[in-house]
# Entry
Amino acid sequence: MDIEYFRVIKEIQSLNLKIFDHLKNIDDEKARINYLETKSDESKKSLKIFQDEKRELTKKLTSLEEEHFEKEKNLSKAKDNLALASDMNQQNAITKQIENLTPVVESLEEEILITLENIETLDENILDKTTFLDELEETQFETHQEVETKCNEENKEVNTLEQRVSGLLNELTETDKQLIKNTISKFPKRDFLTRANSQKKCDKCKFTLDAQTYSSISELKSIELCTSCKRVMIPENV
# Structure
C-alpha cells in the first residue's frame, strides 16, 4: 500500500458525504409533501367534525320547530277558547294553561334562534375549511410537480456520484472493497472514515489505539477499523 491508496479511500468518503447531502435533499423535498398531506388530513377531519355537528344541530332544529309548532298551536287554541269560556272556572283553567304554555313557547323560540346561529357559524366554518382544502389541493399538485423535478435532479447526482464511488472501490483490493462497503452501510450519514491522529487516538470517538494498530495505519501497512466506533481509519497526513 502507498499513500495514494489511502487517498482513494478518502475520496470515497468525500463522495459519500456528497451522496448523503443529495439524499437528505430528497428527504427534505418529500417532507414538503408529507407536511401538506398532514395538513390536508387534519383539515378533512375538522371539516367532518363541523359537518357532523351541523347534521346533529339540523336534526335538533327540526325537532324544536316541530315541538314549537305544536305548543304554539295549543297556545293559540287556548287563547281562542278563553274568549269562549262560559264561566269563571273555565276562564281560570284556560288562563292557567296559557300561563304554562307561554314560557314554553318563548323558551323554544329562544333555543331555535340559538340553534340557527350555531348552524350559521358551522356553515361559515365549513365554507372556510372547504375553501382551504380547495386551495391546499392546488398547492399539493404544484408541490408534487416541483418535488418530482427536484428529486429527479438529485437522483441523477446520486447516480453519478455512486458510479464514481464504484470506480474508486474497484481500485482497492477485493477484501478492502468489501470492508469499506460493509462499513459505509453501517453509517446512515455515510461518514465511515476517521483518522488515527498524532495522539494515537481516533479523531471521531477519541478512542486510544493500541500500538500495533496505530503502527499498521501510520506506516500504511493495512486498513484498520476503530475498535470503538468501527470506522475505517487512515493516517493523519492523508
User: Anything to note?
Assistant: Helices lie at 3-84, 88-169, 174-185, 211-218. The chain has a mean pLDDT of 95.
